[in-house]
């Protein structure tokens, strides 16, 4: 029995040894074959790291207002007898916009002009009489006072007529009229708003920590979603005299050119203002930068055995804006980095560069 047991054990050892030995041999052959097998290159796009001027920027929300803009209102009650402008049209300073009923004032003006003519004639006659010692100084003074009073009355009539003839106070663009022909308006009734489009004022504010880095004349860039990809340039022309005690911000105002009247007062958008000292480093597209728990990294393209391979390299990102990243360390100007396709890469992976499509 003991001999039979030994024979069974030996048989089992031989059996399992053969099974495990065969499996080990097959794995070894597979590993050896894998060492000599090459993976196809991974398609990526690339960009060259380069040096460019880089000034720190802040981005805040700003709104536009007209250098000259107001709502024209009636000063005297009356009925609208003439509308002399079109909604949305350009108007010139002094151009008649709306005329109110002026018939009574015109009649009054004619009567007062007649009284002025008489008072002036009386004054001329009194001066001659006074020169001939035929009138007293008191008579002359009375005639002068009467003529001056009559002149003042006429000037008052003309001022009243001017308020009935409502005109544009400056060159600009008229809005939508708010009155109709024949309508009775009272003092304060809105007639139309007039806005000057060129230039425009840009109002925004910055934290008090930026006070030492701002000055009149600094360039600003303004963008609005109405014109994607278009930037309007201007310069800081006014800085607030105090920091707001509630928000701890300081108000700033810039003046913008408005070519082709694209912008309108009341628009809001993004304001970019350069602050602080110029930074130094190399610039790459921000799509080249990857992020993980160990820090920021890029894949750098290097030649090896006649083909291009990549190596992962840790970098320090100093700043990012407008699709670019400023690299403070870890990368040199002229080195090539991968900008798309990084999710398939590993250290030493072979690549095929295809820059026909950029991210």
Give a quick precis of the structure.
By secondary structure, this protein is of the alpha+beta class.
Report what the structure shows.
The protein is α+β, with helices and mostly antiparallel strands. Among the domains are: about 40-55 and about 280-355, conserved putative lor/sdh protein from methanococcus maripaludis s2 fold, CATH 2.40.420; about 55-65 and about 195-275, Beta Barrel (Elongation Factor Tu (Ef-tu), domain 3), CATH 2.40.30.170; about 100-165, Helix Hairpins. About 25% of the residues lie in helices and about 40% in strands. It has helices at about 1-35, 105-130, 135-165, and strands at about 40-50, 55-65, 70-75, 80-85, 90, 95-100, 165, 170-175, 185, 190-195, 200-205, 220-225, 230-245, 250-255, 270-275, 280-285, 290, 295-305, 305-320, 325-330, 335-340, 350-355. It has a 6-stranded antiparallel barrel with strand order 2-11-14-13-12-15. Strands 16-20-19-18-17 form a 5-stranded antiparallel β-sheet, with no helix packed on it. The chain has a 4-stranded antiparallel β-sheet with strand order 3-10-8-5, with no helix packed on it. Strand 18 (about 295-305) and strand 19 form a beta hairpin. Helix 2 (about 105-130) runs antiparallel to helix 3.
